[in-house]
Amino acid sequence: MGHDKTRSSVSIGEVDWSSPQLSDLLKKADGWNIDQRSHLHPQEVQIRITCGWSAGDASESALLIAEIDGAMVLATRIPLPHGVEVEVSCQTGGNLRTRSGVVVEEREGHRAEDRQQELFLNWVRIRSR
Q: Of 128, 35, 22, 18, whose CA–CA distance to 75 is shortest?
């Protein structure tokens, strides 16, 4: 059984790049951004960097805007440094809940309200305890 991965005998078809339908479709998709957020209202949280050059006892306010696939999406005024460990604390039903994780991605917000408030989005991979 061969493991030849070449597909020289397979045709995927011709693309007419001058087609008006294709041009219209590409124009519609040009501004799309994948910006997954949960349907829940953002929750105010406190974050503290626990490991790295910026580690300290001071905490900063942030918004928890989504929890997706084991990650928290936090909106902050400044981007969190990539790879730092953070603690995220929030009040839930009168109890203080603290989780920790590592910043795996950060970028400026793309939505109009994010730009207006000068927010950065930070993905924090939750560490299990």
A: 35
Domain borders along the chain are 43-126
pTM of structure: 0.65
CA-based R_g, the chain, Å: 21
Tokens 């924090």, residue? 124
Per-residue model confidence as pLDDT tens digits over 87-113: 999 887 888 889 999 999 888 777 777
CATH dotted code for 43-126:
2.40.10
Sign for the pseudo-dihedral over CA of 8, 9, 10, 12? positive
Question: In this structure, are residues 83 and 118 in contact, taking their beta carbons and an 8 Å threshold?
Answer: no
H-only helix segments in 62-109: none
pLDDT digit string, tens, across residues 32-83:
655 556 666 888 999 998 887 777 778 889 999 988 888 999 999 988 989 9
